[in-house]
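Give me the fold.
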Amino acid sequence: MSKLPADGAALRQHFVDYFVGLGHLTVPSAPLVTRGDPSLMFVNAGMVPFKDIFSGQQRSPMRRAVSVQKCMRVSGKHNDLEEVGRTARHHTFFEMLGNFSFGDYFKEAAIDYAWNFIRRELQLDPKRLWVTVFAGDAQTPPDDEARALWRKISGLPDARILGMGAADNFWQMGERGPCGPCSEIHYDQGEGPVGAADFASGRVMEIWNNVFMQFDRQADGALQPLPAPCVDTGMGLERVAALLAGVDSNYHSDLFLPLLDRISGASHKPYGRSTAADDVSMRVVADHARSTAFLVADGVQPSNDGPGYVLRRLMRRAIRHGRRLGAADDLLAQACETVVEQFCGAYPELQAAQARIAHVAAGEAEAFNRTLDHGLKVFADAAASLRAAGERRLSGETLFRLYDTYGFPVDLSAVLAEEQGLTLDQAGFDAAMAAQQARSRGSNVGEAAVGNHYKGWLASLGPSRFIGGDAEDVPPAERQGLWRLGELDGNALLEAQVQIVALGQSERDLTQLVHPGGDAPPLRCEVVLQPTPFYGEAGGQAGDTGLLQLAEGGLARVVDSRRPLAELSVATVELLSGTLAVGAQVWAGYGIRRRQQIRAHHSATHLLQGALRAVLGAHVGQAGSFVGPDRLRFDFTHPRGLSPAERTAVEAHLTERIDRDALAEIFEVSQAQARAMGAIAMFGEKYGERVRVLRLADSIELCGGTHVAATGDIDLFLLLSEGAVKSGVRRVEAVVGDAARRRVRQLATLLQRAHCIVLGLPPPAADDDAPVAADEQAALDWLARLAPPKA
């Protein structure tokens, strides 16, 4: 029997170590914000990052996995926000411990692993353990196999293995697709006989859920056995940490107590572990500080829509409860600081984002305190209007506006209304709230849905293999595979011989596409090449364009390359002549100079982030980017605009790194090794266990894009503009290389023309390579109207 974990952190690691010892691969937590899933805004369960594997739409690189997944439940059906702080186990942020089998072991091993961990590793009393299995219904048979396995493995009597309905013990991803029965382990926290009501009340608490995905539900409701059944399990860290600590609330384990102590000290009020209003407020601040720190560390910024809207709501609820406690305005920032200190060992991204988290928390507190004051004025104006009209009922629309825009919960409006002899239109408020919740579900949350045909391609073809990216400057004859030089519209191409493995039009698979010839227009379609020399748009870097040279002189122009899924690269092409056919060998070439300029802008983006952090502070973090052949755009977190001196310092910092001509180093390491090096993850990207690291001058970041061989290849950096995107987020636009030199010539032309206008001299000759933009020409025309007449 192993040593009992001493605290929450030890329990987290003990779980991972246990399953690693059973042959499971450790999978790092995915970011909280989902990607490519329109049904979810946030990851709300440990299995969410594996949904496409379970559905068969993506191949799994592993047979067994273990993870500790960051989870958020604040929207959709899992929205218990008003219960947070009032109950023992409601949270917005929590950690889910899970072990997974992808067509490897099934029910017997999963039950054996779970029971051994609960009994031997955690030493929980078997007399307090209950198990539930699926009892069956009109459509689906009972899970008698799981019941028999529980009797065999646990030795529990039938009376403690309860059959439950589909609502509790049957899981399915949707009306169709993978599904299966669940089997849960529960722990009795009370004394005396146990009845059905004790499960509903929480006295008998679920601590482990085994989901056995063994069926594929058809359109008619029929269940077909899956060829490779899977296992998805989950155990909430906070619940089990509280059990091991012998406390009756998740908030009273070591996962929360250091945070509550900090909040209590900052509020100058004792924390009494009760349901008193002050204690509830402290728990709300503690819970929301955890969500705030983790969301900001994952790149989310407060905003008025999407994940940023949820973050803003949570922060403002925490700030309002801090006000209620009489604490200083920096209470949330202090609480977030403790979150970082407490959890950075398990989640190094918190440490990397510490300065940014502090800035965001402080900035939102300052903004919200102004908003609260505005809200009080809105309430006062509404009350005055009602009294003037001889009415006493505050409308649901006004209540919702106070709630949604100014952060007033209904109970605060109720207190103010009672003070002024008013009543509330609760039904109107509920209707407005329901409408807002409807807007936050389905297609209006998360990213756009990824088409099932892409998932089908990935499942059948496997991941796309991008070639040439790490040998950008190696001559064709010295590269692996067949390479040659080509030409398109007078521009040099670098071509590789590859195979067409898939064709599609309008989500329809094709075996071939034939151009009719003559003057017929081009035929557009999507092509998957294996391998591919085209970089699919990702990480902010624009996709490649180029040409496919087909058999018998056929041609197809590549107009775009993108990655609808992280591991699938798809080229959008226009067939100009000949035939595109699955299985055909083609020469695929991209524009050499265009790629070089993209590489230069991409590498400059990495140096730009380093320059901004050096000049403005470590709180600066990436909040989005775009890298093309003729410009770069970089969004970053910062509370105010750059001063002229700061802009100059950023440009000087970059220029010094360019002049240094430092060689680029690109290598692969584990995520843990990358974090130990201090590598910064790029915004919005999802990384596997092995990551690609770019070291460029004093910048070290995770990146899968293409880059210069040395910083000197960037040539010249010119900062064009800097401005606000939204509260707390700024945007820089800049150019390098050829684009920067064109801009310099443009500016020189502008100065010459302005000089000639003022002196009444003939204008200089036009520079066809650096034409003056329309707005700049308008400025010259305006200057000409003001200039003195010629002598």
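The longest strand covers residues 491-505.
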